[in-house]
Design goal:
This protein is mainly α. It contains 14 helices and no strands. The protein has one domain: Growth Hormone, Chain: A (Up-down Bundle).
Length: 410
Amino acid sequence: MTTNLKNYLVVTAGYWAFTLTDGAIRMLVVLYFHLLGYSPFEVAMLFLFYEFFGVVTNLVGGWMAARLGLNVTMHLGMAMQVVALLMLSAPDPWLSVAYVMLAQALSGIAKDLNKMSAKASVKTVVSSADSKAESTLFKWVAILTGSKNALKGVGFFLGAMLLELAGFRMALAILAGGLFIVLIAAWILLPGDIGKAKSKPKFTQVFSNIPAINWLSAARFFLFGSRDVWFVVALPVFFYETLHWDFMKIGGFMALWVIGYGIVQAGAPVILKGHHPTGRTALWLALALAAIPAGIAVAMNISMDDGNLQKVGWVLVIGLMVFGVVFAINSAVHSYLILAYSDRDKVSMNVGFYYMANAGGRLVGTVLSGLIYQIYGLAGCLWVSAGFVLMAFILSLRLPARRLAEGGQL
């Protein structure tokens, strides 16, 4: 086994373990605090710092990784997640909104340090001397991203299952213990200099001077906002309150949705038949995606007017599966393009900047998920989702129609 492949496998395994806890903690917090009587908007606000500090972390984390190495930032993220899990296991009287937001802030920092480090490291382990470097890069980043999302879906189910079987606090203790073991193993196996820049970059260099990266990051903001505006709070609460699903069924559906999304994402190179994606690929995928949440909203309102809740459930399940397929391919194309547009020495900063926009979209989507649902219901969230995807389409018009060379030049 080559050193590059070994490092890729270690990074992927660490990312997988972290992702399981990230999905589980999300489901635990949404369901447990809804049970405690929190309104949908209050539940959404619990994730406000999680998403806000994701924005900050991606901005600063890429610069830190370039100076210290991706190994350091990855394992710092894992350690902070362990602390966040243990914080949430405090007694109920401690679990004020401010306290939970603080724990979620720590988890948000942890998640984006880990994600930025894992994805940027893929660029560093693909040899530039490889005659098939572009195909290898697309394949490896698609597998990493797709498998992560599949496991996040498993994490959703794991969180719901542990809440049902072990209770809130024991679930958190199990997750914290497992992640700590993985942290120690990965720290030993990964080289300390992976992802370090040859020179020490200034903080001002985190803002990309490559127009393609700026436009791609803006499109990413709206793409991920379009998902989280219905996914984070509105959908599980709608399932529980309106369709009367139990926790296991809610967690199971959300898990299967994210697992399917991850499988499609990992298979994007095959779906695109080896085609190297360009800005035009992202453009047309965004246009196709925009019609789906609008169609679901219309069909759902017709079914609600008929009073047929079973039909509403099927409309949502089938419609959101279609959304997941197109969204997954679009996301995989974005994840490839940010690495293709970046040169090797600045990849961690460019990826950090790009995921800052990703986290910003999630932040706005999360807040709107609770707010729009409370005022206009799930259909309102789906219409906002369609509007966000249209914005991603408009911004993608500025992406290069052909691949950039190393260093971001046409």
